[in-house]
Amino acid sequence: MAKDVKTQPRRTPPSPRQLSASQRRRAYNRMRRQKRRKLLFYIAAFLAVIVVAVVLCLTVLFRITAIDVEGDTRYSADDLIAACGIEPGENLFLADTKGAEAALAEKYPYLATVEVHRSLPARIEISVTDAVVSCAAAWNNQYLLLDKTGKVLEITGTPPDGTPVCTGLSVKSAQLGQKVELDDPEQLSLYAEVAGAVSESGLEPVTSIDVSDAFNLKVVCQNEAGNRMTLELGNENYLSKKLRFAKATLEQKLSDSAAGTFDLSLVTQEKSLTFFSLDPVESTPEESPSSEDPDSGTGTSSEESGGEGTASIPEDAPYFVQNGGYTYNGDGTYTDADGNVFDSSGNWLYNENY
Predict the structure, then answer these.
(1) Residue 73 to residues 105, 131, 214, 221, 256, Cα–Cα distance (Å)
(2) Quick check: 233 and 219 in contact, CB under 8 A?
(3) What is the mean pLDDT of residues 292-310?
(4) Which pLDDT does position 17 carry in this prediction?
(5) What is the domain extent for residue 76?
(6) Which of 282, 276, 283 has the alpha carbon at shortest distance from 343?
(7) Region of residue 17 (left: phi > 0; alpha: psi -120 to 50; beta: else)
(8) How many domains does the chain have?
(9) How large is the average pLDDT for residues 233-238?
């Protein structure tokens, strides 16, 4: 008869309360070590993945396949791409975009803005805009073509047709692609304000800019009839408003035959007080028809022929009305064909049509 086998009861782990303080401490430290090992493993694995990805991006992936040029410029796209220093096949993220911008700006002075940026997955974009010549300034028997900031765009023997000539700039030195250096550094900021205001106003065509006197700035423009108008701007305050007001007045209220001086020095933020003086015009003798009708034997006075509300031109009338085209109003003022009213000194007063 087989003997009965006695099985021992299964031992269960003691509960934390059954452990002594030292046993609980050892168990806690063992568990912390296990968690730390797992954390270090995950961190190492993550870093390994990052390193592999970076190595692939810098060696195998993101090779530059195309370089594009955007913007209107006088320079060809091939020249700009060759001068930027970035070659197809380079890594996109290792390409020196800042160095490319500096190289292009130094080699091509007519570039006003240069931006070289990356475009995923593998393309370089070069965005450029050309500067506009604002004036020509004399220097060492030559002319410097400057933009509105004073940057030297070109050095030439004669200024191009239609380019305003700037007087009053005492040039110390000049280098292509760099701002002109003047004896008085503050004069450069003054020029920049005037040139910027002229560009913003759209006033054209401008033939000269005078910045020799900071309190008597002048801009000379020419209308469609070829008559010159000198704009006296005073100081640099409210230059944009002064030139916008001058442009509107010349286009809307003065005839093409008007030539003289337009004083805008008193234009401020609150008011627009201006004075206009016409240049004297020498009268030329013209054969006038007889005021007497040979058929009827009757004469017509100049006052009658002028129509209602007009008077005959007095003998001592100023030169600018003696060449014709003006009507005497009888009160010392004269009106031209466009309705502009002037006093006896040629100062513009108002327009009858406004």
Answers:
(1) 13, 9, 35, 28, 35
(2) yes
(3) 39
(4) 62
(5) 66-130
(6) 276
(7) alpha
(8) 3
(9) 92
